[in-house]
Design brief:
Two copies of one chain form a homodimer. The first copy, chain A, is mostly helical. Chain A has five helices and two strands, in the order αααββαα. Chain A has a two-stranded antiparallel ribbon. Chain A starts with 11 loop residues before the first helix and ends in a 10-residue tail after the last helix. The C terminus of chain A is likely disordered. Chain A binds a DNA duplex (30 and 30 nucleotides) through α2 and α3.
DNA sequence: TACAGTGTACTACGACTCATAGTACAGTTA
DNA sequence: TAACTGTACTATGAGTCGTAGTACACTGTA
């Protein structure tokens, strides 16, 4: 289910957060779908349950999942509220990264193409398109 | 010259790398311009010289500055070589971040606008002028 | 009711990173 | 020579990361 790099400088729980976020955003994991339990996933990945739980807690704080004691952890419905604070953070990071990409020689057209390609795969807020 | 958050979870030297990279990309710091010396900047920011040097070393590895023993550290000329490896890394990060932004409700038009606005302020690779 | 599964909380430990402090060496410039 | 520059190294304290173990509260089912 996952590819984690144990010896990466990036903490395991952060890698987990990234991966899961990706699966949620691309709707591989759908709304209210149950995630593997902390202990199950820990066993699958041969990783300590505490590390998994740290990742789940972070995802819950960020609003991507919700957990119910005794039942399990589930994917949150996609952006019911705009969450402007979070959006602003992402936007600022985006500006940094876009600047760097352009500085390194990426053209505006290339960037436009990337965005258009992503538009299809990302399950956005409104979803006012008919698939 | 800088605003650093000492108590941030993000290391000081990484904040420094980000800030300086930003100044170089936006050409506030121009090609071959000399950066403050390790000790001077350390004194200005009331930070240990070792921390500054760590940031400078990182910037040198990433190709944004070059250092000459006994003389100082200077801004590298903008992307003479494409550096496809680095570009690929940035592109992958960009895809992640763009996906997240769109998931949070940012529209394609908004993204296009951000890019167009940046186009002016970023000193890109070719700059279609011949120096 | 029991029991197995779920999330959650806490302590303790070793390994690692980060920032500081101090010292030292090599090169450049006036 | 003197004052500046980058660079390298050791040592220390604070903090993070991952692991290990234990414990508690809740849910669903036999």
């Amino acid at each position: 289910m996952f590819e984690l790099d144990i010896r990466s400088r990036k903490p395991i729980y952060e890698q987990l957060v990234e991966r899961l976020k990706e699966l949620i955003i691309t709707e591989v994991l759908k709304s209210d779908e149950q995630l593997p339990s902390v202990r199950t996933l820990a066993q699958q990945l041969t990783i300590n349950p505490n590390t998994i739980q740290k990742a789940y807690r972070e995802l819950e704080i960020q609003g991507y999942i919700y957990s119910i004691k005794g039942k399990g952890s589930f994917v949150s419905p996609a952006s019911p509220k705009p969450d402007t604070e979070k959006l602003l953070k992402v936007k600022n990071e985006l500006i940094k990264l876009l600047s760097e990409a352009m500085y390194l020689g990426m053209t505006v057209d290339e960037l436009f193409k990337i965005i258009k390609d992503l538009e299809a795969s990302v399950g956005g807020g409104m979803e006012n398109d008919q698939n």
